[in-house]
Amino acid sequence: MTAEEGPIGLAVAAGTLPGRVWMYANYHCNIECTYCLTESGPKVARRELGRTAMLEVARQAAELGFTGLGVTGGEIFLVPDMPELLAEMSQYLPIVALTNATLFQRRLLSRVEVLAGKPVSLQISLDRPDPDVNDEMRAPDNFAKVVAAIPALVQRGVTVRIATTVESIEDAELDRLCALHRDLGVSDDDHVIRPIIARGRAIEEGLGVAAAQSDLPAELTITADGAFWSPFGPTVRGGRLDTDLLITRTTLPLSVPADTLLRLVDRQPRGADSALSIR
Q1: Secondary structure (DSSP) of the chain
Q2: What is the tens place of the pLDDT at every residue in 85-114?
């Protein structure tokens, strides 16, 4: 039996399960965004999933019939061997890897050249076309670092996506943001706009929309703490991990959380698909 013929592969092909498996590579970060799901920052403990586990998740995801991988954090490029790890995992499935793009100085830019031509997209956060407004939500000098990093990555053959995370944005402001990312070398097809979700640090800041389990796509998400319903599941508030969207403490073999997620999805009533457009 091929992966496509197994229960997970059939569910992905039918659209019952999303095809992407997410991994939280780490939780620590070099900045503190106001809407961060995991309260990540420089003082957060280095709780990492680890190279061996991430490679095994990638391999088993392909064997089960999933069609893609997502890697998030924390800031993933604080994990020392992340460029090489992404390249190795991409041998199994295409990858979308989330980054704040503030660490791409000469040495790291040289190392990420290993991703050129590989099925790896770096999804970079850029929320506003104006530095002051963007940086207020993220970090000082964030805008300047991001707009310098994007063309440098594009010039090196690395695929870049832009993610804009906002509560709302006026049409005129969005037009200026889109003009900016086009000038930086990123097409409209590679620009996603997502709502702020009221989990993690966003709650303390009074930001975001409330999201129940049924509002979130059932994207299998693997962390050092277990497997979750969605990458919006393993959030942190007040330094404590939220477990309301935890599905299993077991992460490997991947078939255990994958089969559990499929059973949970199958139990949902018809018409209970996720209500929020989140990518």
Answers
A1: --GGGSHHHHHHHHTSS-SEEEEE--S--SS--TT-TT---TTS------HHHHHHHHHHHHHHT--EEEEESS-GGGSTTHHHHHHHHTTTS-EEEEE------HHHHHHGGGGTTSSEEEEEE---SSHHHHHHHS-TTHHHHHHHHHHHHHHTT-EEEEEEEES---HHHHHHHHHHHHHTT--GGGEEEEEPBSSTHHHHTT-SB---GGGS----EEETTEEESSTTSS-EETTEE--TTEEES--SSTHHHHHHHHHHHHHSPTT----S---
A2: 999 999 999 999 999 999 999 999 999 999
pTM here is 0.95
Please, are residues 241 and 43 in contact by the beta-carbon 8 Å criterion? no
Report the greatest alpha carbon distance in the chain: 55
Note the pLDDT tens digit of each residue in 71-91: 999 999 999 999 999 999 999
pLDDT in tens, 17-42: 999 999 999 999 999 999 999 999 99
- Measuring CA to CA, which residue among 67, 93, 107, 85 is closest to residue 25? 85
Class of residue 116 by CB neighbours under 10 A (exposed 0-12, middle 13-18, buried 19+): middle
Give the mean pLDDT of the chain.
95
Domains in the chain: ranges and CATH: 3-267 (3.20.20.70)
Rounded to the nearest 5 degrees, what angle is found at the Cα of 89, between the Cα atoms of 88 and 90? 90
Count of all residues that appear for the chain in the document: 279
